[in-house]
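All the exercises in this workshop are built on plain-text protein records. Sequence and backbone structure share a record, each on its own labelled line. The question running through the whole workshop is how a given chain folds. The record below serves as our worked example for the rest of this section.
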Amino acid sequence: MVFQDATDSLNPRHNAFDSIAEPLRRLGKLRGDALAARVEELAHLTGLPDHLLSRYPHQLSGGQKARVGIARAIALDPKFLILDEPTAALDVSIQAVVLNLLADLRARLGMTYLFVSHDLNVVRLLCDHVIVMQDGQIVEQGPTVSVMDAPQHPYTRDLLQSAPKPPAAPGGADTPAKAAE
């Protein structure tokens, strides 16, 4: 699982290496060189430079902490990953980087995501299927394009009307802009 606030989900006494390694030690039973190699592979997959693996959470940026949380979540090669508003605590430019990373990882690793979000623009960009809930009850569900373009439930229509409109992507692209962290 990838949590909403990477800062709160990381143990302040563990450096990035140990945070990523923890599920591998506990559930993957990796040790020594095999453990180090897997942590480095996960850091590379998530775009976390090796020199940051020795740093503690307070020494990392929000985007770097998010990458540690993602690397930890994919450490054991899950087929299904829950993401609870993983970009909510990040500024907009870093959100785009993390969303691109998540889209890339989903494609590369063949994972299915359950992506919890209040940001309908993110849902439109990252999700194939959407479920709209009101007061804990499902009020509408279906392919994202269908629900977003032709909502059937009044609550869904209200949500879509109240959501900020995303800026037009350069060149008509339908993916978040690439940004450097």
Notes: DSSP finds eight helices and four strands in the chain. The first helix runs from residue 6 to 9.
